[in-house]
């Protein structure tokens, strides 16, 4: 049985909301077979660091990403792992009606990774599309903790999705 581990990140906002990714996130990057980032990197340096460190990296730009990041990252990324079709996008709009909108926009996808809200999300749409938002590993906003997600793909299916909550950290100074 082939098993692939996927690390999902979004809304890192480095260095605006945090100076750097927490050590636990870097350890997860090192362990993952594939890393996907759903936008709002903020600085090109993090993209370069993740690109150098991750075995495989997929990413999209977010609404807080400037011209340099937009030049290197698409609005929508698509990839396949063991026959499971993934896509990533930063924004999906309001939670109300999200499942129906994403079914219409991504009829050829099995798992859609998104960000923007900083709110972890894991649902399945009426058409069977799995929607995953890992939250943010650096800016919890109104959530109880910063977070990311781990996904296990095996035998052509998503076998597990784990929401990882990070311990509290001292806030970074605002720039």
TrEMBL record:
Class of enzymatic activity (EC top level): hydrolase
Q: What positions does the domain Calcineurin-like phosphoesterase occupy?
A: 6-155
Alphabetized Gene3D superfamilies for the sequence: 3.60.21.10
Names of required cofactors: a divalent metal cation
Q: Matching SUPFAM superfamilies, A to Z?
A: Metallo-dependent phosphatases
| UniProt-listed Enzyme Commission number(s) | 3.1.4.-
Looking up InterPro entries in the UniProt record yields: Calcineurin-like_PHP_lpxH, Metallo-depent_PP-like, Phosphodiesterase_MJ0936/Vps29
**Protein name according to UniProt:** Phosphoesterase
Species source reads: Gryllotalpicola daejeonensis
């Amino acid at each position: 049985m082939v098993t692939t581990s996927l690390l999902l990140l979004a809304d890192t906002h480095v260095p605006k909301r945090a100076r750097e990714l927490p050590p636990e996130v870097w350890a997860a990057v090192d362990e993952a077979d594939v890393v996907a980032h759903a936008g709002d990197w903020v600085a090109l340096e993090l993209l370069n660091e993740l690109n150098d460190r991750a075995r495989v990296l997929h990413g999209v730009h977010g609404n807080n990403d400037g011209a340099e990041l937009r030049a290197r990252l698409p609005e929508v990324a698509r990839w396949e792992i063991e026959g499971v079709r993934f896509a990533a996008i930063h924004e999906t709009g309001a939670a109300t009606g999200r499942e129906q909108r994403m079914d219409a926009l991504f009829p050829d996808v099995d798992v859609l990774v998104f960000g923007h809200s900083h709110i972890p999300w894991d649902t399945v749409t009426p058409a069977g599309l799995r929607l995953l938002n890992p939250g943010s590993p650096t800016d919890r906003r109104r959530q109880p903790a910063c977070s990311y997600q781990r996904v296990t793909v095996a035998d052509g299916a998503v076998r597990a999705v784990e929401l990882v909550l990070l311990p509290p950290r001292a806030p970074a100074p605002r720039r």
